[in-house]
């Protein structure tokens, strides 16, 4: 494994670092107004980030996996509220469409997803079904040329902005995991309603939503791939999604460390720079080691994925190790900033709030530890 990024990937990463550094000037305005300045979205759209994982034939950049991961880490230095729809665009919905969608589905959706004009959402989780996907209750019963979709999905991000939603439902509960099907649902479908937003501690710009499907008639051509293969499509996408979360964790940790290093050099305590105190130096060293270790674990897994290897085990390791490292880094960053680190409007305070959810979505840390142990003991 070459530990240096290929030249083209490194150039894209550097360009993204410059874009991010420029956009960070708008973070104080966001904290004051709770509104993302329009220039942020315009800039990110022009850079083509929405289409990073979409084939060139459909207007995307078709970036290789190492470059996409490096860029994802850099984007994650931004407040996550600046780019929620990009995270969706490089997530499991795109993966499912690219790999299993019909040509008609690809032509109708991918070009608009690549330019950021079609917004998407992913709906698996239910009130009584989190990590236990097989416990879902949503059903899609085939009646003639339509599926009758009934059920509830919860904790769905971007649902209020989505044009289409990839929904997973049982078409045959008796078949277990082989009875779950993926449907690409138009967000304007009659019978589909959204709950009021559920405000969150951080990360999500608009909160989370509950989706209710009441006798929604979904055209048969909304089927993605084959009936009964939805569970497996979801797993495919989630393996890469967990690496994406690893990218987000590393990026969040990076900016927390960078901000804290600068603060520790400038802040004076007892007549000397905060960074001159040994206890502080040890905390900074721990932060740097956490970040370095997380980055190595992440990029090894991405490198193996790019070679076509099975990364199910490593994606779980990445998910746990990177998110927990980011949590420790953010906690130390707040501690070293003292009272200012606990005040709204500072970088380390928003990172502290934002990284907490990374240990929950795309599989909680405990679930991934179960999966790792199961692999080791089989």
Spatial arrangement of strands, main beta sheet: 2-3-7-6
Helix count? Answer: 12
The proportion of residues forming helix, as a percent range, comes to 40-55%
* Average pLDDT reading: 96
Backbone CA Rg = 21 Å
Determine the structural class based on helices, strands and strand pairing. alpha+beta
As for the CATH topology of the largest domain, it is Butyryl-CoA Dehydrogenase, subunit A, domain 3
Ends distance: 28 Å
Supply the CATH class of the largest domain: Mainly Alpha
Q: Strand portion, in percent?
A: 5-15%
Query: Major beta sheet, specifics?
Result: 4 strands, antiparallel
The coarse silhouette is: globular
Describe it:
Helix 4 crosses helix 8 (230-266) and helix 9 runs antiparallel to helix 10. With 378 residues, the chain is α+β, with helices and mostly antiparallel strands. The chain has helices at residues 7-23, 27-33, 38-46, 65-75, 84-89, 92-100, 103-114, 230-266, 278-306, 312-337, 347-355, 365-377; strands at 120-123, 139-143, 146-157, 164-170, 180-186, 192-194, 208-219, 268-269, 272-273. It is built from 12 helices and 9 strands. The longest helix has 37 residues, at 230-266. A hairpin with a 2-residue loop joins strand 2 (139-143) and strand 3 (146-157). It folds into 3 domains: 7-114, Butyryl-Coa Dehydrogenase, subunit A, domain 1 (Orthogonal Bundle), CATH 1.10.540; 120-228, Beta Barrel (Butyryl-CoA Dehydrogenase, subunit A, domain 2); 232-377, Butyryl-CoA Dehydrogenase, subunit A, domain 3, CATH 1.20.140.10. The strands form 3 sheets. It has a 4-stranded antiparallel β-sheet with strand order 2-3-7-6, with no helix packed on it. Strands 1-4-5 form a 3-stranded mixed β-sheet.
């Amino acid at each position: 494994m070459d530990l240096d990024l290929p030249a083209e990937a490194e150039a894209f990463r550097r360009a993204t670092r410059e874009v991010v550094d420029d956009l960070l000037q708008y973070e104080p305005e966001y904290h004051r107004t709770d509104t993302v300045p329009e220039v942020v979205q315009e800039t990110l759209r022009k850079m083509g980030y929405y289409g990073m994982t979409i084939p060139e034939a459909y207007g995307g950049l078709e970036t290789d996996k190492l470059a996409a991961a490096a860029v994802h880490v850099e984007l994650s230095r931004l407040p996550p509220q600046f780019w929620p729809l990009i995270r969706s665009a490089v997530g499991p919905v795109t993966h499912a469409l690219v790999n299993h969608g019909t040509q008609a589905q690809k032509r109708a959706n991918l070009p608009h997803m690549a330019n950021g004009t079609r917004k998407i959402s992913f709906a698996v989780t239910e009130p009584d079904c989190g990590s236990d996907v097989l416990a879902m209750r949503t059903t899609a019963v085939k009646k003639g040329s339509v599926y009758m979709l009934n059920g509830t999905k919860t904790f769905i991000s971007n649902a209020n902005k989505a044009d289409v939603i990839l929904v997973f439902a049982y078409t045959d509960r008796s078949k277990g995991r082989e009875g779950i099907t993926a449907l690409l649902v138009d967000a304007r479908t009659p019978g589909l309603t959204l709950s009021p937003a559920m405000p969150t501690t951080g990360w999500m710009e608009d909160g989370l939503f509950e989706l209710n499907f009441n006798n929604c008639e979904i055209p048969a051509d909304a089927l993605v791939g084959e009936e009964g293969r939805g569970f497996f499509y979801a797993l495919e996408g989630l393996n890469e999604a967990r690496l994406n979360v690893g990218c987000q964790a590393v990026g969040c940790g990076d900016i927390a460390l960078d901000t804290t290093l600068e603060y520790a050099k400038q802040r004076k305590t007892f007549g000397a720079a905060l960074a001159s105190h040994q206890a502080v130096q040890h905390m900074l060293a721990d932060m740097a080691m956490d970040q370095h270790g997380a980055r190595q674990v992440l990029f090894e897994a991405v490198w193996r994925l790019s070679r076509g290897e099975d990364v199910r085990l490593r994606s779980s390791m990445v998910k746990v190790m990177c998110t927990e490292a980011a949590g420790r880094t953010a906690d130390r960053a707040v501690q070293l900033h003292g009272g200012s680190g606990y005040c709204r409007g500072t970088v380390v305070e928003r990172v502290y709030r934002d990284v907490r959810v990374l240990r929950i979505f795309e599989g909680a840390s405990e679930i991934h530890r179960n999966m790792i142990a199961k692999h080791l003991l089989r």
